[in-house]
Amino acid sequence: MKKLLLVDDEQRMLDLLGLYLEPHGFQCDKALSGPEALSLMETTHYDLVLLDIMMKGMDGYETCRHIRKMTDIPVIMITAKDQKHDIIHGLNVGADDYITKPFDEDIMLARIGAQLRRGNEQNVVVYNHLIWNPDTYQLFHYNEEINVTPKEFQLIGYLMKRPNYVYKRDHLLELIWGAESDTESRTIDSHVRNLREKIRLTGFPIDDHLKTVWGIGYKWVN
Question: Which residues pair with 217 in a beta bridge?
């Protein structure tokens, strides 16, 4: 199930978008402001963001700029502003598509589908012949598949997708096991240890890239 983040400062619009999208199999989280959206994205992985422009305080343009510092997932702006320069400005700050209000439900669904397909193609991460493929849930070094567990696969994916970003152990636990899990932080250490051993056997210099940040967590160094 694809997870979407809906961002609009009008609760009515958030409810309407959820009413359109959830029957089509999307899981939707909702944020009433840019800062709330960014806070949610710190702890939750989303496949796509639907972002209103005309919001009080931090508008959609500024929110999109901050999102682009965090992730390259698709962002579709939804707004009543349909002037050419507004569309260009939205695309220039990092939006992938633009839908004007009032919007047609079928067109919106088609555009979301197109961005998700494109996003899947771009989500494959390759570094020095180490290939992380979320579509097939496989990890390769050259043509050799590395047999990792689903949790190990998610863990290495989070790290590889955000090089030099330091993930705290508790953050990784929440991302992979969920906020309600009672799993202990040392579980992350054992998963990292297993990953290092498995990847090292293929000849990839994992110790040069998967680094421990002592007392905090882990990061991937390119």
Answer: 168, 213
One-letter identity of residue 162:
R
Edge-to-edge strands, sheet with 217-220 = 167-168, 217-220, 210-213
The two tokens of residue 71 are 């992730």
β-partners of residue 100 are 79
Cα angle, residue 185 at apex, residues 183 and 188 outer, rounded to 5°: 95
Residue with tokens 């698709």: 74
Whether pTM exceeds 0.85: no
Q: How would you write the pLDDT of the chain (222 residues) with one tens digit per residue?
A: 789 999 999 999 999 999 999 999 999 999 999 999 999 988 787 889 999 998 999 999 999 998 887 777 899 998 876 667 777 887 888 888 988 888 888 888 998 998 887 765 556 788 888 989 887 788 999 889 999 998 999 999 999 988 889 999 988 988 888 766 677 778 899 999 999 999 999 999 999 999 999 999 999 998
Pull the structure tokens for residue 40: 């949610």
